[in-house]
Structure formats: structure tokens, C-alpha cells
Write a structure and sequence with these properties.
Length: 157
């Protein structure tokens, strides 16, 4: 009964995914909006269902923040302290940039088979997939650097 209510004729997943575009000249089975919503939802579910990665990134962020905070603990505002803080800012920017890049670089080879299969089946475009995958990862790409900077900020002074 519940399954019947969830997947009635009006809202079955396959009907939503294969929303109509003009049959004569369509490149993909679904329009751009439908592709976007479905791929974004799938990408978000993939991010949420990987608790090991979330725990690892959380522990990594806390450890690096604590380590950098202890190295640069209570810097004074003189010439040496300002140069130390500049070095710390460089380390933080480099760490944030490389961690974001490696996360993106490692994801696409792992999902290449699924991407190619779905693209060849005309389910969605590669551009939509890339945009949605980046958008689904964006909250974590913001959260972990903010936590890292908050830890370091309060320790350095």
C-alpha cells in the first residue's frame, strides 16, 4: 500500500526521469531540469552514504588544525609574528586547495564506468554530471576549511 502511494502514476521515478522533450530532436531522454535534479540527488546521496570519508576528513581537519595551531600558538604582533602568520596563511591556502583538488581527481576515475554507461544510454550529459557532482560536494568543500580555519584562528590569536 505504501509503495503504491509513493510510486503512483504521477510520481514514479522513471516517469520523472524520462520527462518528455520533442521526440524528433532530442539529444538526451530527459530535459536539462530533470537531468539536473536527478543527478544532483544521486550525487548528494553518494556523498551522504560515505560516512568513512566524512569521518576521515573530519579527523584530518581537526588534526591538521590542532597541529598548525600548536606550531603557531599565540603569535605576537611584531615583524617576526606577522611573517609567521603569513607563512601559516600560505599553508592553509595550499592545504585547502590541494585537498579540494585531490578529492575531485579521485572521484571521477572511480565513477567513470557509471558515467560512460549513463551517457551512452542518453540519460544525462557529462556537463550536468560534473556540475551536479561539484555542487553536491560544495557544502563539504566549505565546511571543512571553515572548521580548519576556526581551530587555527583561535589558537594563533
Amino acid at each position: 500500500m505504501l509503495e503504491h502511494r509513493l510510486f503512483s502514476r504521477a510520481n514514479r521515478p522513471q516517469d520523472l526521469f524520462f520527462e518528455s522533450a520533442p521526440a524528433g530532436n532530442r539529444r538526451f531522454r530527459a530535459n536539462i531540469g530533470t537531468q539536473f535534479v536527478n543527478v544532483l540527488w544521486r550525487s548528494w546521496i553518494t556523498v551522504v552514504r560515505d560516512p568513512a570519508s566524512l569521518k576521515f576528513r573530519g579527523i584530518q581537519t581537526f588534526t591538521i588544525g590542532l597541529l598548525l595551531g600548536l606550531i603557531y600558538l599565540n603569535q605576537s604582533i611584531n615583524q617576526e609574528g606577522v611573517m609567521n602568520i603569513n607563512g601559516l596563511l600560505f599553508i592553509l591556502v595550499t592545504n585547502t586547495s590541494f585537498s579540494s583538488q585531490f578529492m575531485v581527481v579521485n572521484v571521477f576515475p572511480l565513477e567513470m564506468g557509471v558515467i560512460l554507461r549513463d551517457f551512452n544510454s542518453k540519460l544525462y550529459s557529462v556537463e550536468i554530471y560534473y556540475f551536479c557532482k561539484t555542487l553536491a560536494d560544495l557544502p563539504l568543500q566549505i565546511l571543512f576549511p571553515v572548521l580548519l580555519n576556526a581551530i587555527v584562528y583561535w589558537m594563533v590569536g
